[in-house]
Amino acid sequence: MAIINFLVKNLFNQVSVLIGLIALLGLLLQKKSFEEVISGTIKAMVGILIMSAGVDVFIGGLVSFQTIVSSAFHISAPVAKNTLQNFTENFGSIAVSIMALGFLIHLVIVRVFNTRFVYLTGHLMWWISLVIAASLIEVFPDMNQGLLILTGAILIALYWTFQPLYLHKYMKKVTDSDEIGYGHTSSIAAYLAGRFGHLFGKPEESTEKIKIPKKIEFMKDITVGTAFIITIIMLLASFFAEKEVVLKQAGDLNFIIWAILQGFKFAAGITILLYGVRLFLAEIVPAFRGISQKLIPGARPALDVPVVFPYAPTAVLVGFISSTLVFLIFMVIFGLMGFATIVPSMIMLFFPAAGAAVFGNAVGGWKGAAFGGAVNGLFLAFGQALTWPMLSNTAPELAVLADPDWYVIIWIIMGVGKLIKAIF
Hints:
Layout: H1 2-12, H2 15-29, H3 34-72, H4 84-113, E1 117-119, H5 122-139, H6 145-175, E2 181-182, H7 187-196, H8 222-240, H9 243-250, H10 255-294, E3 300-303, H11 313-337, H12 346-390, H13 404-423
Parallel strand pairs: 1-3, 2-3
């Protein structure tokens, strides 16, 4: 367990280290020169770190946005009797074991059956292992620990293997290449956007080509457009939110100045992220060829959702907006009906929606992008409402922190598990 925990903390949860080692190995296997090995490895790691820095910059804004929006709609998060922290303390070692054994099984499957994609989104490996552990324990609370780990490892290995595979037809439309796969737990939203986006528009109507009036042509620049739109949303939300909440978020600043800065920081984060993605992709793709030639024939890396953002950066913003609007509509409807209290988790409303929007844009233009974001909003709204009570004995907060695939995995495991218990 000490070795496994070391690997989890220092390798899987440190994506830059994981990608750096992959790049290093790939370049060494290709027998590149010393200078090329050092340069390629460092650029791949720095690219990831730049991308992460961009994410950190605007995540702060997203969290503030979430607080303000929740206040504006007078929404308070439901209180969990069993917390994620307690679940992690009691079952964290099981989740870690599931992840470590599952990754080994995944590599064996890719190598033996030539399924092509090696899943490399390290931080999501941890979260999915928690999701699978919680789902299994909810249905089989008395399951032997060894059997629990083995079952979870097989399930997670199958997910990592087939998730990039079933989506790759549409990934090729997005990237116009066969070099990388999509390794993110928003794949079901991205698939639906790629599969049905064409029903809403045409790829020629891409978000990147759309004609807009000359007076607002500045919106075509992703940095300027993002800053402008997010600032307006932040200002509107601040005016409707409770005064005490807004002042607490703004601190010593005037709340209007604070809202403007949040919008601009969000745009700065997107700009930094896009630069980091381009830098690390330029290194990891050619470096990975060494692994696909020597160790796992035909293998390609399946990478985190931001890898698709540079292909349609305006679609990223369209997806976020449509996802948030759909979620907020259902948040109000559920509240009025007394059906459920759901919380706008802005990080999940952004990343999965942005990815789905890029896929929708590739087949259906800006309307397809809006559809992709809306699909994510629907998943998060109904997913929270339905899944929170399903995880009441383990870690219901997972229902709030979830991407679309989390819900599907939970529903399948618990549904099949209950069916097995009913039969046997």
